[in-house]
Amino acid sequence: MQGKIVFEEHMAIAETLGETRNFAGDSGKWDEFERQILDMGDERLELMDKNGIELAILSNNAPGVQAILDTKEAIEVSKKANDAMAGAVSKHPKHYAAFAALPMQDPDAASEELRRCVKEMGFKGAMVNGFTQKDVPDSAIYYDIPEYRSFWATVSELDVPFYLHPRMQISSRAPIYDGHPWLKSSPWGFAVETSIHSLRMCGSGMFDDYPNLKIFIGHLGEHIPYDLWRIDARMRFSRREYRGKRPLGDYFLDNFMITTSGHFCDPSFRCALDVVGIDRMFFSADYPFETMEDACEWFDATQVINDEERQKIGRTNAVDYFNLDLD
After folding, report:
1. At 162, is the pLDDT very low, low, confident or very high (cuts 50, 70, 90)?
2. Which residues pair with 281 in a beta bridge?
3. Residue range 111-135: average pLDDT?
4. How much is the pTM?
5. Tens of pLDDT along 79-108?
6. pLDDT the model gives residue 189
7. Residue 326 covered by a domain
8. How many other β-carbons are positioned within 10 Å of the β-carbon of residue 234?
9. In what side-by-side order are the strands of the sheet with 53-60?
10. Could you count the other beta carbons within 10 Å of the beta carbon of residue 262?
11. Which of 286, 294, 300, 320 is catalytic?
12. Residue 121, domain extent
């Protein structure tokens, strides 16, 4: 399929590159990976063209700004990453757009930076890499807490999406992974972290306060679609401190969108599509953590969908949702 649009596609600047090495794959391939994630020029564009991708919405790599303990430094690095993406978009406006990196260490600073990126540079929303650390390494701040309502008010006012991307839990808070560090990363821990964060949002009341919020999550929904029936069923017996006014599943189906990023499996795709519906499903690759070839070869050939549905998931949903002018 030609003309695909992708938007869990990562870039890095020097200040955010180092932490990625922990989960970038075979250490022997680091030089290649480093070149790919720093590149927003010819190599990435050639791969997009080769695989039928017309436009990529760029975002800063994980854990990125979320792992910076000093708030002032986080603000400075987020601006630098966003300015770098804005430069790439300005140079290649038909092929790139951008999601803002945000210093979530300070909700007001995050609001200010999101407003700058959307209003002044035309960014399409934000991508934040899971929980934020602040001041001390053994910290993890999640965004469902009341201190972030002012930030969500800004997101609601701007009416742009918030993409919640995974990151690894810090070791001091994850004893269950002791002796099995491979579990903390993308094979399992990424989905656990992101799904729990998403469910916290659903149970916090934030979508009652700001019903137009849209949260994107990747990897075919981080296991949630598969378990959504059971989550709602068992909530009848486990509602202590649940602050939502409606069943949890209602918030997920109303306020969350999902992408195919990094999960190219027909049975999983079929399940997610059945649960969330075609209007909330978007194609993405997860480059360079996954190859564009693997993502596109699977999507272009899968028989779970017909060609009309492939066009909708691979292109027109994104065109309509992000108001893209690609003519």
Report:
1. very high
2. 258
3. 98
4. 0.96
5. 999 999 999 999 999 999 999 999 999 999
6. 92
7. no
8. 10
9. 4-11, 53-60, 96-98
10. 20
11. 286
12. 4-321
The secondary structure of residue 323, as a DSSP letter, is: T
What is the distance between the terminal CA atoms of the chain, rounded to a whole angstrom?
17
In a domain, 209, yes or no: yes
Name the amino acid, one letter, at 25.
G
CA distance 192 to 63: 15
Question: Is 286 in the active site?
Answer: yes
Encode pLDDT of 241-261 as tens digits: 899 999 999 999 999 999 999
CA torsion angle for 83, 111, 185, 177 (degrees, to 10)? Answer: 150
CA 15 to CA 64: how far, in whole Å? Answer: 8
Task: Check which CATH number belongs to the domain holding 73 and give it.
Answer: 3.20.20.140
Domain presence at residue 327: no
Task: For 78-92, give one letter per residue: b (16+ CB within 10 A) or e.
Answer: bbbbbebbbebbeeb
Pinpoint the alpha helices (H) of the chain: 14-17, 30-38, 42-50, 71-91, 107-121, 149-158, 189-203, 206-209, 224-234, 248-255, 266-276, 292-301, 307-311, 317-321
68 DSSP 8-state letter: -
Residue 72: what residue type? K
For residue 327 the two structure tokens come to: 């003519």
| Whether residue 27 has pLDDT greater than 70 | no
DSSP element (H, E) containing 127: strand 126-128
CA neighbor of 287 nearest in space, from 92, 103, 86, 46: 46
Residue 127 has φ and ψ, to the nearest 5°, of: -125, 125
Please give the backbone phi and psi of residue 229, each rounded to the nearest 5 degrees, phi first.
-60, -50
Q: What's the structural domain count of the chain?
A: 1
Do 129 and 165 form a contact (C-beta atoms < 8 A)?
yes
Residue with tokens 């200040």: 15
